[in-house]
Amino acid sequence: MYVSLLGPLLRPDIVRNAPFFRLFARYKSSGSSKRWLRRQKNDIYSREAKHENLKSRAAFKLLQIDQQFKLFHSPGGVPLNVVDLGAAPGAWNQVALDKCPRQSKILGVDILPYQPPRGVSSMQANILSKRTHENIRNFFQKKDNKSMMEEFEDVEITTVGGKKLTVTEGTIQGANSASIDTYSSPQDKSPGSDQPVDSEQEKHLEEAKNWPVDVVLSDMYAPFLQITGYASKTTNIPYARMANTSGLAVRDHEMSMDLCDAALIVAIDLLKKNGKLVIKFFTGVQDKYLEQRLKVVFHKVQRFKPSACRRESKECYFVCLGKKSYYVDKLMVFRKA
Question: For this structure, is 164 an active site residue?
Answer without folding.
Answer: no
